Amino acid sequence: RAGEAEEGWLIRVLLWRLYELYVFYLVVRYLEGLGLRVVRDGGRGFVVKAGERRVLRLLFNAPISGLSSLQRVDDEADVERYMGRPDVSVVDGRPVIFECKYSSDVAYITGGRFKVMAYAYEYDPLAAVLAYPGLKKGARPYDEEDRATVGLDALARERGYVEFQFRGRPIYVALIDPLRDDEENLRVIGEVLGRHVDALGINLGAGPT
Predict the structure, then answer these.
(1) Smallest Cα–Cα separation from 27: which of 192, 195, 170?
(2) DSSP string covering 20-34
(3) In angstroms, what CA-CA distances link 113 with 58, 130, 132?
(4) Exposure of 115 by Cβ count < 10 A (0-12 exposed, 13-18 middle, 19+ buried)?
(5) How many CB atoms neighbour CB 175 within 10 A?
(6) Phi, then psi, of 127 in degrees rounded to 5
(7) Does residue 154 surpass a pLDDT of 60?
(8) Residue 37, SS3?
(9) What's the pLDDT tens digit per position in 159-195?
């Protein structure tokens, strides 16, 4: 039984990581659709280029160095290890960050909703996005916070995402379901990221520097 439990846990972890990679893939496809190139830059980082000019950084499951508001952890020397690690970050100055939750469980998505708010507080991004595949049908809320999550899910199913404001910044709850057509998921990613392209400093007409 212990072996079966561990195997089930490993499968869940793999599915979670695959979902993070899927959202990363959609972000890359959107950027490439703008005529940009995404190039590996070592570790978990990527450089986004227009021609030979660097226009953005793209991070996968990594802290955003220099932008965290975390200042100190007791007398620990390595503060970075305690920083939030958004699953996907599109960075040029202030970032757009994505937290990915591969679950249809209402309580888990409620927790993800507050986690993305914590990231928004720590990094003060242009926008923060909670990506999830949709709640299971007939999901039963346990409390008022879960009931609000069920309501957000109903709204997200109508247009693909819900926007709300937190400390003057938008947070999106975006329904990204890998079981449906990629193009529909790409539409949602495009509508969310597209609102912040100008603020991210993407200037496709500028020459190389």
Answers:
(1) 192
(2) HHHHHHHHHHHHHHT
(3) 22, 7, 10
(4) middle
(5) 24
(6) -160, 155
(7) yes
(8) strand
(9) 999 999 998 999 999 999 999 999 999 999 999 999 8
CB atoms within 10 A of CB 39: 11
Looking only at the bridges linking them, the beta strands covering 88-91 and 53-60 are antiparallel
CA distance 79 to 112: 23
Query: Which single residue is written with the structure tokens 């993407």?
Result: 202
Q: Is the Cβ–Cβ distance between 129 and 171 less than 8 Å? A: yes
Q: Give the C-alpha separation, 111 to 101, whole Å.
A: 10
Structure-token match 């100055």, residue found: 93
- What distance in Å separates the CA atoms of residue 141 and residue 152, rounded to the nearest whole number? 12
* 175, HSE (Cβ side, Cα atoms, 13 Å): 21
- Distance separating the N- and C-terminal Cα atoms of the chain: 60
